[in-house]
Amino acid sequence: MQNPIYTLAKIAEILNADTKLVDGEVIIHYLVIDSRSVLVPENSVFFALSSHRNGHEFIKDAYAKDIRNFVITEAKYVNQYPDCNFLLVNDALAALQQLTIYHRNQFNLKAIGITGSNGKTIVKEWLYQLLAADFSIVKSPKSYNSQIGVPLSVWQIEADDTLGIFEAGISSVNEMDRLAEIIRPQVGILTNIGEAHAEGFSSKKEKLTEKLKLFAASELFIYAPEYVTEVNTKDLPGKKKFSWSSKQVADLQITTVEPIEGNCYLRAIYQNAEIECMLPFKDKASIENGMICWATLLALGYTPEQADQRLEKLSHVSMRLELKNGINQCSIIDDSYSADISSLAIALDFLNQQNQHPKKTVILSELFETGRDDMDLYTEIAELLSQKKVNRLIGVGTHISRYADLFKFETQFFNDTNAFIEAFPGLQFNHETILVKGARRFEFGRISKLLTQKIHDTVLEIDLNAMVGNLQFYRSKVKPGVKIMAMVKAFSYGSGSFEIANLLQFHKVDYLAVAYADEGIALRKAGITLPIMVMSPEESAFEAIIKHRLEPEIYSVEILNSFLNALSDYDFDYPIHIKIDSGMHRLGFDQPEMDALSGLLKDSARVKVQSIFSHLVASDAAEHDGFTGQQIDKFKSIADQLVNVLAYKPLLHISNTSGISRWPEAQFDMVRLGIGLYGFDSALANNRGLQTVMVLKTTVTQVKTLEPGETVGYSRKGVMPNGGKIATVKIGYADGYTRYFGNGVGKMLVNGHLVPVIGSICMDMTMLDVTGIDVKPGDEAIVFNQQHTIMQLAKDINTIPYEILTNISQRVKRVYFYE
Prior knowledge:
Largest sheet: 14 strands, mixed
Distance between the termini: 34 Å
Oligomer: single chain
Structural class: alpha/beta
Number of strands: 38
Radius of gyration: 29 Å
C-alpha cells in the first residue's frame, strides 16, 4: 500500500472542523505542538494545545517560524492572521488524538503496546534490538508515552512498517481508553507496577485497572503474576496470556538468577523443559526488564535457542542526553548510543537550547535499519540540520560520506570511527556546542571521551526533564496571566549556571533572578536574553549592570541615588525593582521611607519600576499564617501607595515557592519560583507532586578488611571493635560533604545497601562501613537520590536542603541529562 496523503482539507474532514482555508490542498507531513520544534514549516500543522500554558499564546511564535496551518479552539485568531489556514475545533488535544486514530486505522500493522510504572522505555528499546532483524519497526521516540506523546509516535507509521512498538503512560483515571484506541495493540506487555505517578490514583488497584485497559482488545497479554495481585486472574485482558515469574509457577518459571562477571545467567522451566539465557547486565532493574523481553520472545514464538542468542547481544540503552563540559571551553551533548531520525530531531532541539556558544557542531554516524533509500534519508537529514541552524557536520560512515554534497555548510567526513580518532589531533574544536550522535556499532563513546574534560569521580547529575516537570507543576498552580520569575542565584542552587538558565529560557519563564551582578553577567555572556533581576547589586558593579542590561533590586534611598548617579544623561526608563520590607527585616523600604522614595521616582525619568516586591517569611508554616496574612496586607498597602504616584502599573510579587503552594491569593502579577524547581517545597508533604532533580554520586577507591580494635581516620575516631570491612570513596569536605556527616551521622547507598560513614570526613575522601556487603573498587556510592534524599541528609545534620545543595563545590562535575 501507499502512504496516505493528508491535505489540510482532508484533515478538516477527519476532525469535522470549522475551517478558514487559504489553501486547503497544502499537504501535511508534520504535527507540531511546540513552536520551538519546527522541521518543515510549509508541511506542518500547529495544534494550539492548552495544558500548563495556553497554546494559542504561541501562534505568534509558530507564525514567525513560517507555519501557516493551525488547529485552534479560539476563533479570535482567525482574523489576526489572514494568510493562514485555520481549523477550529472544540478540543485541540482530542483533535490531535482523533487524527492519529484515523491514521492508525489506515494500516493493518501488528503493534506491541507496553505500559507499567517502570521499565517501559527500556523494554521497548530492547525489543527493538531483539526484533529489528525480522521486522521494519516503528516505535515511540525516547519515552513519548503521554496523551500527546502517543499520538505523535503513532503518526510516524508508514506503509513499509511491519511492526509498531509503542509505550503508554498515564497519570490519572480515564486516560488509557484513548491511548488504547490510538495504539490498537495486538500484543500487550505489562512492566513493573511501582509508585511512579501514583498521586493521580486512589489505590494501586485503581492504577493497575486503568493501565490494563490498554490491552482490552489484545490477542496476547504478557505479564508477571506478582504485578497483578490486585485484580482477579479472570479479569486479566488478552485472548491468550503468557506469564513469567521468578517467584511462582508461570509459563516461564525462572528458577536461577546467577551473576557472572558483569552478566547474569538465567535458568527457567518452559513447556516442561529446562531452558537458559545470559543477560549482559547485572543490576536488578535490567535483569527484571530482561526477563520481560525473554518472556516476550518466547510468547511470540521464538525458540529458546533463538531467544538466548539474541538476549546475550543486548546492549546498553541510554535514554538521556548528557550535557558535559568539554575540551577548549566546549559544551558536549553526548547521545552516542543511538541514531535515528526521531531521536536526532529531539537531540537537535536540545542543541538549539544551548546559547553559551555561537557555533553548533554535529558529529553524526550514518543511520542503519531505517528501511529507507539512502538518498531520501540523507536529504531529509541535510534539511533537518539546516533547519536547526547547525554550523558544522562531521559525518562518520561510508554511506553518509557518499552524500556529502547534500550538506550546504561546513563538513568533514570519515569512513569510520577509527579514522576520526586518528585525525582528531588535527581537528579544531573551540568554544562550540558539539552534539555527538552515533549508531551503537560506531562506538561513539570513544569520541565522546576525547571531547569531554576528565570528570572527577564525584559527579552531580541534574535531570533537566525533572526540572521542567517541576516548572510545569507550579505553572499548573499559577493563575492565568501570572508571570514566573525563576531564581538562579547561587549557581542555580548549586546545580549550574547557563545550563539551567538555557532550559528556563527555552521553556519561557518570564524573568530570572540572581544574587550578584557577576552571576547575571555570566548569563548574558552565555547568550541568555531574558530579563534578569540582580537582588544584591553592589555600587561598584553599577557600570557593569548597565552595560549588560541587568535590572537591579533597589532597597534603600541611598542605593537608588547611587544608581541614578551611575546612569548617563542618555539613559531613560532603565528597569529597576523596588523591594518592600513587609516583615523579613533583611532589605527593603518600610512605610516611613515611602515619601522620599515616591519623590525620587516621580521626579526621575531615568528609571522605570518594573516590579514592586517583597518576601514572605514563613509561607510554608501554618502556625505563622496570621503573620503571613499581615505581610500580604502590608505589602499591598505600600505597593498601592507607590503605584498611585507612578504613571504606570509595575508588576507586583511576593510569593515564593511555598507561597505558590499555600497562598493563591498572594500571586498578584508574578511569583518567584526557587527551591521548588529543584524538587523541594516544605509546604508539600514529602514534596508530593515534585520530581527529584539531582543525584550526587561518587565511587569506591579501595576496600580494606580491618581486624578487631582497629580504628579509621583522623584522631582514630572511627572504631571497629569487632573488625570488619571499610570502603574509601572519593568525596570529602572540599567537595561539600561537610564534616558534620562524620562518625556514623552520614550514610550512603552502596549496591542497594544504606551504609554509615565511619570516622571523620577527610578533605577529599570519606570512609564507609561496608561490613557484610559485596563491594569492590569502582562501585558507585550514592550520596543522595530519590530514595536517600537531600531532605534526610539535611535532617541528619539539622540544616535545610538549600545548604546541602549550595555547599557542593565547583570541583564536583555537573552532568546534565535530558530525555
